[in-house]
Write a structure and sequence with these properties.
Helix content is about 20%, strand content about 20%. It is of the alpha+beta class and about 110 residues long. The protein has a domain of about 70 residues: HIT-like (HIT family, subunit A), CATH 3.30.428. The protein binds adenosine monophosphate.
Length: about 110
């Protein structure tokens, strides 16, 4: 999608701190980190949200979790633990409508709200 900020990051049209990329997924540091490690893992193919997912997207979205596992190890937070979150629509606080998996770690997380 031409006006999607994450599509632009994937294509390198706007700056980001990338920590991983391959043909299916890209990961970069969140611009407003909520934890010492806060990385967003996104599919390279634009999908608005989990609500917009089809059966064809299952592999792509599932793959984000494999990338998260790799990055958690890379960041040294795999053993200590980390949290993975996908916000969907307004009540969850989704602000960017390109599916993204938040990888949060490096501190003890509170109870989920
Ligand atoms: P969400 O609220 O789940 O839609 O998360 C969107 C996330 O994208 C927020 O944590 C923002 O801080 C982050 N974000 C927005 N713009 C950028 C950007 N240009 N580079 C990195 N992270 C961004």
């Amino acid at each position: 999608m031409s006006d999607c900020i994450f599509c632009k990051i994937i294509k390198g049209e706007i700056p980001s701190t990338k920590v991983y990329s391959d043909e299916h997924a890209t990961a970069f540091r969140d611009i407003q980190p909520a934890a010492p490690t806060h990385i967003l893992i996104v599919p390279n193919r634009h999908i608005d949200s989990i609500n917009a997912m089809t059966a064809d997207d299952e592999q792509t979205v599932g793959y984000l979790f494999s990338v998260a596992k790799k990055i958690a190890a890379q960041e040294g937070i795999a053993e200590g633990g980390y949290r993975l979150i996908i916000n969907t629509n307004a009540d969850a606080g989704q602000t960017v409508f390109h599916i993204h998996l938040h990888l949060l770690g490096g501190r003890r997380m509170g109870v989920m709200a």
